[in-house]
Amino acid sequence: MRKPVLAGNWKMHKTAAETSSFVEAFAPMVAHAKHAEIVICPTFVNLPAAIGSARSTNVEIGAQDVFWLKEGAYTGEISAPSLTAIGCRWVIIGHSERRQYFGETDETVFKKTIAALDAGLKPIVCVGERLEERESGATETVCGGQFTGGIAGLTLEQFAKIVIAYEPVWAIGTGKTATPEIASDTHRFVRGEIRKRFGAEAAGSCRILYGGSVKPDNIKGLMAQPEIDGALVGGASLDPASFAAIVNF
Ligand code: PEP
């Protein structure tokens, strides 16, 4: 049985005060949710506020990115050990916005994933195709390539600790959700790749989240698909009642 993960990616939203008010309003709304792991990923600078407010709750806090080295002359970067040191537990790696705007590649995704694991963070590694890739029938080639370049080089032991998020880029922030069937098809494909590389047991236990315009009114249909093990939620995770409705689907 795979325990769902419901993770909020706040991107570049909220101040520290807004972060604390959110967590204080949200945590009681999900206090009885034992069925899922609940994660919020604010900006780096708001991690301490989120971690402080989420203490003694069932909400865990994650970062939206990480650098692959432990320390050094890398102005502006944040290391994995510095994240674990403040109580951060998760990290999103390879989000399509990082790939699109900040030069993230499968190679850097791979290095960041290893660095995160070494520091004890739980990586949520993102894969997903762009609209033109879907329309040209390249979804499996793209997601398969991202899996091969960013994930397949892990050891079995490392792989067992990651979560994968399938996020079709055309569904992120657009209001166009992949139908549960479309999402499921790609999840099944990714699980097949996992089976080929890491074996049936690893494929059966890996959590694959869906991301792309998840809202309170479509989460139930998505979660009804046996292939979908949770969601990575952008816009709809910014409001406590909305994200709580998603968590309590
Ligand atoms: C995301 O940021 O990963 C995302 C899926 O955003 P949204 O839910 O707003 O589409």
How would you describe this protein?
Helices cover 43% and strands 15% of the residues. Strands 1-2-3-4-5-6-7-8 form an eight-stranded parallel beta barrel, surrounded by five helices. The chain is globular and about 45 Å long. Among the domains are: 43 residues, no CATH class; 128 residues, TIM Barrel, CATH 3.20.20. The mean pLDDT is 97. With 249 residues, the protein is α/β, with parallel strands linked by helices. The longest helix is centred in the last third of the chain and has 19 residues. Strand 7, helix 11 and strand 8 form a beta-alpha-beta unit. The protein binds phosphoenolpyruvate (PEP). The site of phosphoenolpyruvate (PEP) has 13 residues, from strand 8.
In short:
This protein is α/β, with parallel strands linked by helices. The protein contains 12 helices and 8 strands. The chain is globular, with a radius of gyration of 17 Å.
Compile the SSE list and pairings.
Layout: E1 5-9, H1 16-29, E2 37-41, H2 47-54, E3 59-63, H3 80-85, E4 90-93, H4 96-101, H5 106-118, E5 122-127, H6 131-135, H7 139-150, H8 156-159, E6 163-166, H9 180-198, H10 200-205, E7 208-211, H11 219-223, E8 230-233, H12 240-247
Parallel strand pairs: 1-2, 1-8, 2-3, 3-4, 4-5, 5-6, 6-7, 7-8
Helix pairs in contact: 1-2, 1-12, 5-7, 7-9
Bound molecules: phosphoenolpyruvate.
Phosphoenolpyruvate binds at residues 9, 167, 172-173, 211-214, 232-236.
Tags for this entry?
249 residues, alpha/beta, TIM Barrel, 8-stranded parallel β-barrel, globular, binds phosphoenolpyruvate
